[in-house]
Write a structure and sequence with these properties.
About 3% of the residues have low confidence. The chain is mainly beta. The radius of gyration is 16 Å and the shape is globular. It has one domain: Protocatechuate 3,4-Dioxygenase, subunit A, CATH 2.60.130. It binds fe (ii) ion.
């Protein structure tokens, strides 16, 4: 059932994100794919709450640890047309470097206030948006957010988004596998706003 309070929050949130998005629309380059990695949480591993706000789990008082940020953009085709009805999923480790996944055997305890996985579905304008935490490094990896896009239940893209100019990028084997001229398509530039830092990144299918 659709929770009216949550729906209202979502409308406000997406209204808030309706600001200029960095100019990737002119390019016909598609967003490069990247490894899904071992920690994509299957439906049974997820919280019941799988909305766009990973920092707040429905019914919980606590907010996730970490630096709260917004990640938003549009899903476009290669002609720059918005793609409606695209399901955009993200997942990432919490501020302690632990994934919401049964296969994460690291000794780090999980931040139970972090949703770990979320999704949204684009409207006619192709927009997507998430409230989450700025990704942090964990052993062996530079900070990243995993992203998956599905259309009509068919997977169209799996990739990872990286932090601009993070010093670990140059040592990260997956980041290094992204062709240099395509890296801007998977790079998040967080800018300071009156609310929280915000990155705009279009996804081109
Ligand atoms: Fe990862």
């Amino acid at each position: 059932m659709i929770d009216p309070v949550n729906q209202k929050r979502r409308r406000l949130f997406f209204g808030m994100l309706a600001l200029p998005v960095s100019g990737l629309a002119a390019t016909s380059d598609s967003t490069p794919g990247g490894s899904e990695g071992p920690f994509y949480p299957g439906p049974k591993m997820r919280y019941e709450d799988v909305d766009y706000d990973l920092v707040k789990i429905a019914g919980e008082v606590e907010q996730a640890g970490g630096e709260v940020v917004e990640l938003a953009g549009r899903v476009l085709d290669r002609n720059g047309n918005p793609v409606a009805g695209a399901r955009v999923e993200i997942w990432q480790c919490d501020v302690r470097g632990r994934y919401l996944h049964r296969g994460d055997f690291s000794l780090r305890s999980r931040d139970k206030a972090f949703q770990g996985f979320g999704h949204t579905v684009t409207g006619t304008d192709g927009r997507y948006g998430f409230r989450t935490i700025k990704p942090v490094p964990y052993p062996g990896r530079t900070p990243h957010i995993h992203v998956k896009v599905l259309l009509d239940n068919r997977e169209r893209l799996t990739t990872q988004f990286y932090l601009a100019d993070h010093p670990d990028n140059e040592h990260d084997w997956l980041y290094q596998r992204v062709p240099q001229h395509k890296r801007k398509l998977v790079t998040m530039n967080f800018i300071t706003t009156e609310q929280v830092p915000r990155a705009s990144l279009d996804i081109v299918l």
